[in-house]
Amino acid sequence: MKHPVKIKRAYEPASAGDGYRVLIDRLWPRGIAKQDLAIDDWNKDLAPSPALRKWFDHKVEHWDQFQESYQAELREADQQARLRELIQAAQGGKITLVYGAKDTEHNHALILAAELKRLY
């Protein structure tokens, strides 16, 4: 049975059904106190590399190339190991990827969730 992987903006409230919540941004979301985010882990290393993040800059016209580049980063051996560690940390339960981007249709959480689902 496949376990669900969800994504949720950091500005949405946590819920009991979220399971293991992990912040997947390199930068802390603006305006949120650490005690208010209700995360189990902050895994900065699963975020896109700083160079890729800066290049993308949340520009929709860069989306297709960003997806390809980030998928390539996630397929590297060290990233695959981090993904497996995340799955282990969730102990076979739900995982909610928490991100701060405003754009809900063009962000790295979508790509990361797809990669996790492939492994889970």
TrEMBL record:
Domain of life: Bacteria
Matches recorded under Pfam families: DUF488-N3i (PF22752)
InterPro entries per record: YeaO-like
Record's protein name: MarR family transcriptional regulator
Species of the source: Pollutimonas thiosulfatoxidans
Taxonomic lineage: Bacteria, Pseudomonadati, Pseudomonadota, Betaproteobacteria, Burkholderiales
